[in-house]
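sry for the spam today, last one i promise. struct tokens for design, 542 residues
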């Protein structure tokens, strides 16, 4: 009977050791940033029911946070048992309070956890620092304080030393950061993550050769460590060693073949490399297995836009917005959505996305130009004027079309006022906007003197400013337009305005009683369109 009791006790002990080993393995994978593996290990341990339920759920919640899934993290932190006053119950409630935006309450829970540990646990202080710091920086100074307190208690706690180094780096203290990474490497010369952190710091400092050396050391220590290959991929990419980068990202995917997120990182690499066709072909294959994956849908709708496949881009965009939680939407999603909707002539959606995009990304000159163009095409000319004026005034290198459409918007506003024939105030407003258009078009004739449109629209604006040819303000611009077009090879494109230009100059010289000079211009107009009524009238006057 005694031997049976001993055997039962040994069985219980072995299951506890195994369970603790599973928990430790999950924590280890979390520290190594192998989040998918950590999640699988901890979920299995939690389901088995042989580990400390609260502690296991707590670390599983942390893993979900690192994977940008706060909703799942909240579920883990609410596992029954967290309402008690154990250390991990307090830590979980602190993190839950942070997720709910209550920093004061979170701080109370964290302080209780530290007190419960009798101020002697580096792990507890590290977890408090981590809560303030990752995955998003909530209070960097509070994080550093707790990491430093943990380091004082146990300087050989390498996980804490590395996190303290990260926090120093985010506090723009690169020297201190490197010191902590190197101290972790001294404590454990086979600590792969220490060399990865050293590599990351050098990558951030753009000392790519040093970064590559450190990351290659990490891979030599642990050849099948996916994170090291991913960091080396990023460093090669930034160093513009694209072939080497592609080899590393493929190795990373190979080592994470069951991790869908690894494959989506490859899509991100292809998109950053502007290999849009490959993004579409790879993404469509991935989507078959995971049709609501927002990262894949994002890559597909961005890439189809870049390929000018606007209908496909719109289809994937709609699927993206159905699949994407608000918490995971990026500013660029609104930017691309505005562009896609605009190209698909969905004015209502385009306006909605443009307004949001401009509020979150006000320094995007190209976006402002696209918005201004939408204002123009929807005949919101004052809004177009305001947007193009802001683009030209506040951002470098305005394009031909920024000036061109700004001039056209002013011109169209002027036409609206000019239509009110018997209203003197309206006539004054029309003159003001025609003059504004002429000022803008003068930039085109200066900067783009070989482009016929520059001269065409300056001539048109001035023809309205001088409708009775009293000053012949338009004459030099019509003449220059003719000169540029006749010297080019695209005369058919400008046929109608060539006729107008010949007619103007013919009429001008007729008014001067110079029929010899007027004749060739009027005959050129006739050659282009013998049935034009104004040309016929001018011919009679010859």
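last one done:
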């Amino acid at each position: 009977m005694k031997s049976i009791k001993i055997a039962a006790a040994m069985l219980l002990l072995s299951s506890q050791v195994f369970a603790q080993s599973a928990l430790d393995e999950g924590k280890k994978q979390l520290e190594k940033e192998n989040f998918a593996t950590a999640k699988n290990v901890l979920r299995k341990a939690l389901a088995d029911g042989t580990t400390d339920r609260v502690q296991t759920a707590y670390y599983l919640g942390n893993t979900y946070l690192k994977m940008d899934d706060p909703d799942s993290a909240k579920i883990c932190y609410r596992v029954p048992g967290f309402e008690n006053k154990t250390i991990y119950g307090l830590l979980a409630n602190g993190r839950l309070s942070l997720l709910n935006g209550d920093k004061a309450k979170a701080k109370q829970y964290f302080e209780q956890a530290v007190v419960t540990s009798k101020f002697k646990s580096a792990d507890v202080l590290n977890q408090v620092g981590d809560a303030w710091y990752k995955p998003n920086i909530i209070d960097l100074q509070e994080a550093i304080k707790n990491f430093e307190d943990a380091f004082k208690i146990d300087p050989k706690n390498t996980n804490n030393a590395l996190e303290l180094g990260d926090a120093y780096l985010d506090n723009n203290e690169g020297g201190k950061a490197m010191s902590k990474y190197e101290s972790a490497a001294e404590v454990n010369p086979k600590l792969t993550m220490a060399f990865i952190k050293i590599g990351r710091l050098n990558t951030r400092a753009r000392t790519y050769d040093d970064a590559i050396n450190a990351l290659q050391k990490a891979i030599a220590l642990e050849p099948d460590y996916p994170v090291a290959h991913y960091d080396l991929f990023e460093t090669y990419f930034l160093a513009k060693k694209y072939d080497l980068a592609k080899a590393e990202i493929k190795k990373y995917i190979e080592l994470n073949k069951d991790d869908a997120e690894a494959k989506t990182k490859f899509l991100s690499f292809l998109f950053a490399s502007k290999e849009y066709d490959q993004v579409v072909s790879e993404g469509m294959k991935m989507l078959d297995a995971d049709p609501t994956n927002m990262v894949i849908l994002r890559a597909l709708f961005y890439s189809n836009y870049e390929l000018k496949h606007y209908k496909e881009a719109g289809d994937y965009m709609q699927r993206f917005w159905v699949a994407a939680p608000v918490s995971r939407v990026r500013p660029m999603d609104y930017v691309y959505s505005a562009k896609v909707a605009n190209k698909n002539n969905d004015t209502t959606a385009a306006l909605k996305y443009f307004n949001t995009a401009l509020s979150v990304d006000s320094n995007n000159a190209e976006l402002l130009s696209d918005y201004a163009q939408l204002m123009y095409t929807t005949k919101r000319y004052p809004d177009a004027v305001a947007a193009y004026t802001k683009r030209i005034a506040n951002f470098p290198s305005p394009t031909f079309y920024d000036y061109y459409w700004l001039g056209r918007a002013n011109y169209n506003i002027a036409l609206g006022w000019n239509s009110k024939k018997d209203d003197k105030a309206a006539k004054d407003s029309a003159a003001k906007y025609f003059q504004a258009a002429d000022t803008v078009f003068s930039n085109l004739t200066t900067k783009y003197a070989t482009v016929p449109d520059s001269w065409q629209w300056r001539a048109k604006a001035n023809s309205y400013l001088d409708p009775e040819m009293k000053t012949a303000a338009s004459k030099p611009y019509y003449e220059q337009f003719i000169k540029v077009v006749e010297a080019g090879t695209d005369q058919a494109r400008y046929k109608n305005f060539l006729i107008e230009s010949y007619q103007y100059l013919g009429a001008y010289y007729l008014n001067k009683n110079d029929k010899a000079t007027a004749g060739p211009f009027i005959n050129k107009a006739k050659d282009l369109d013998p049935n034009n009524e104004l040309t016929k009238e001018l011919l009679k006057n010859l």
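The longest helix spans residues 2-31. ok im logging off now
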